[in-house]
Design a protein that fits this description.
With about 180 residues, the chain is an all-alpha fold. About 55% of the residues lie in helices and about 0% in strands. It folds into 2 domains: about 100 residues, Endonuclease III, domain 1, CATH 1.10.340; about 45 residues, no CATH class.
Length: about 180
């Protein structure tokens, strides 16, 4: 009905993870506006540039207190060498999840989006994504997250591809566009 989704990938690294954190529970357009404001303020988004900002400055960039804490926690983990983002491309999916979700504010959804878009993992099904679940409920007879997960099992080992199609349907039906990396 809406054609195939665009080929979207995101670069690996801190800036992309900041974007994904900002996208948690927000529309893509709102998250992009917040990110753009932050980027205009600091010019280059790095762990150091984030840690140099005060909570007031982060709030002025439209980051909620909670998201500011999450972005700071990520920056601190990198600066303190608790997380090496370059190592993630050589890690297993389980290792990536464990390393990312060990940081406050990074849960399964954030790790899954990073795995899919930055690390190009082929078999991710982001069960915590409301657009995916709502689209599955709309298009199939599933009525719960567990039913969606069970249904998605048939799409192995390409659940990421199925997820892209579900997101594409969700966005196009609502006359919205993908927001690039």
């Amino acid at each position: 009905m809406y054609g195939k989704p665009p080929s979207i990938s995101r670069p690996e690294g801190f800036e992309t993870l900041v974007k994904i954190i900002l996208e948690q529970q927000l529309s893509l357009a709102s998250a992009k506006a917040h990110f753009d404001k932050l980027q205009a303020y600091v010019k280059t988004i790095t762990p150091i540039s984030i840690l140099e900002l005060s909570p007031t400055e982060l709030r002025a960039c439209q980051l909620s207190r909670q998201k500011a804490r999450y972005v700071i926690a990520l920056a601190r983990a990198i600066v303190d060498q608790e997380l090496n983002l370059e190592d993630l491309s050589h890690a297993t999916e389980a290792e990536v999840r464990a390393q990312l979700t060990a940081i406050k504010g990074i849960g399964d959804w954030t790790a899954e989006v990073y795995l899919m878009f930055s690390l190009q993992a082929k078999d991710i099904f982001p069960l915590g994504d409301i657009a995916i679940i709502n689209t599955m409920k709309e298009l199939t007879m599933v009525s719960s997250k567990q039913a969606a997960l069970d249904r998605a099992a048939a799409w192995r080992p390409l659940r990421s591809l199925a997820s892209y199609y579900l997101w594409h349907y969700y966005l196009k039906k609502r006359n919205r566009e993908w927001v690039s990396g």
